[in-house]
Amino acid sequence: MSSDVSKPTSPTSPSSKATERSSVVRVGVLGGGQLGRMLALAGPPLGLRCVCVDPDVAPPCAWVAEHVQRSVDDPDLPSLLDGRVDLLTYEVEHLPIEALRRLERRFVLRPSVRAVEIAGDRLLEKTFLRDLGLRTAPFAAIDAPDEARAAVEQTGAPAILKTRRWGYDGKGQRRITHVDEAHDAAVSLAVPAIAEGFVRFSRELSIVAARGLGGDVRCYPLVENVHREGILRLTRAPASDVSSSLQARAEALVTRILEAFDYVGVIAAELFEVGDELFVNELAPRVHNSGHWTIEGAHTSQFEQHLRAIAGLPLGSPAARGASVMVNLIGELVDRDAVLAIEGAHLHLYDKAPRPGRKLGHITFVADEVSVLRARIAQLPEPLRSASLADFDATR
Ligand code: AMP
Predict the structure, then answer these.
(1) To test ligand 1's pocket by mutation, which of 160, 200, 231, 274 has the most ligand atoms within 8 angstroms of CB?
(2) 3-state secondary structure string across 307-336
(3) What whole-number distance in Å separates Cα of residue 215 and Cα of residue 317?
(4) Up-side HSE of residue 315: CA atoms within 13 Å toward CB?
(5) How far does Cα 309 stand from its chain's mean position?
(6) CA-to-CA distance for 208 and 290, rounded, in angstroms?
(7) In this predicted model, what pLDDT tens digit does every residue of 103-150 receive, in sequence order?
(8) For residue 173, which atom of ligand 1 is closest to its CA?
(9) pLDDT tens-digit profile of 278-316?
(10) Cα–ligand 1 centroid distance for 53 (angstroms)
(11) How many other CB atoms are there within 10 angstroms of residue 118's CB atom?
(12) Alpha-carbon span 94 to 100, nearest angstrom
């Protein structure tokens, strides 16, 4: 281990030696996508500088941060990072666990590997949530296609079969309406998988929260999310019609998760609202798309909050500044001039080439009144305008 990059001796300082030399803390971010890019943009005002690790030639983060072009399981990575980072974090949740463990032995890694290990595997994740006493969809493991029928008999149909690992944005999923379809669905999906009973939710909510090094927890307000084809399209923040008791229950459940992981950093819990209950759909042990509104719509953005948490700095206020709506740019880009001409439009482009289903950027509007948010969306160019108005009107 290089003498420059030692494990922290103090609970509040990622590297006392680096801090003596300079007040800048260097954060290695595993993954160089848009989340890493927005983390990197939040660093400099806090005296933090990000270095992203990504095997691509020009990942979104590389425009705004130093880039180490390696994959996380590259055997040379630890020595390449030696002396260049004071601590590590990650912006992707599907990471090779053994490689992470190697890095964790050499560097300070926050959040811990355990959170990725559990959240990156739907069976471990659901079991973890159930063991914490939280509600989830009924689920059963499918280790081979001929176990699929029994699994769906257990969960009930309709059901969704999901691969245990590597699924995202609705990928690696098959919906079935009848148990007779279970076997074929499992054959067309990679096993191991799980079957999940279909939850008849009234809306999809999520909560983003952070836990600091000292164990203090800050929760953002519940937000409402609209998905189409398994991809997040629009977030309204705060969600409307949220009683203080619903917010308190969401905060209690995410705090239980944070404490069970002894977590440090930002986490997101995707929730289904069913009557007055909250079911946990999945966890993201990182900053999350449903928290992008916080850049302009909250006193502390989720990206700043994550950096504060992992660097042992005091956490900031998660309070909303008003009402916000975040619209994702999926698959195709939008006319930049037309968006920027709309009053109060905050455009975030990720420097990604258009491809169907790909997240290319997002737009946030913040206003005092919800009606103003709708009026701003109505000024977006087509076809984004019509789709986003429909998504907005689908929220409560
Ligand atoms: P996921 O990849 O698990 O987040 O699933 C993507 C989307 O599919 C969710 O945001 C929901 O809209 C829907 N979905 C996933 N699981 C279920 C379930 N068990 N019941 C109902 N809808 C679901």
Answers:
(1) 160
(2) HHHHCCCCCCCCCECCEEEEEEEECCCCCH
(3) 16
(4) 23
(5) 16
(6) 8
(7) 999 999 999 999 999 999 999 999 999 999 999 999 999 999 999 999
(8) 2
(9) 999 999 999 999 999 999 999 999 999 999 999 999 999
(10) 30
(11) 21
(12) 11
Query: Three-class SS of residue 37?
Result: helix
- DSSP type of residue 12: T
Which residues are CB-contacts of 202 (< 8 A; sequence separation ≥ 6)?
273, 274, 275
Global pTM value: 0.93
Q: For the chain, give the number of residues.
A: 396
First-to-final CA distance of the chain: 54
Cis peptide before 138 (omega within 30 of 0): no
User: Is 281's C-beta closer than 6 angstroms to any atom of ligand 1?
Assistant: yes
pLDDT band at residue 8 using 50, 70 and 90 as cut-offs: very low
Distances (CA, A) of 348 to 210, 258, 314, 326: 23, 29, 27, 10
Complete domains list, the chain, with CATH? 16-109 (3.40.50.20), 138-197 (3.30.1490.20), 203-394 (3.30.470.20)
- 341-367: per-residue pLDDT in tens? 999 999 999 999 999 999 999 999 999
pLDDT at 101 over 50: yes
**For residue 183, which phi and psi values (nearest 5 degrees)?**
-60, -50
Question: CA–CA separation, 57 vs 370, rounded Å?
Answer: 41
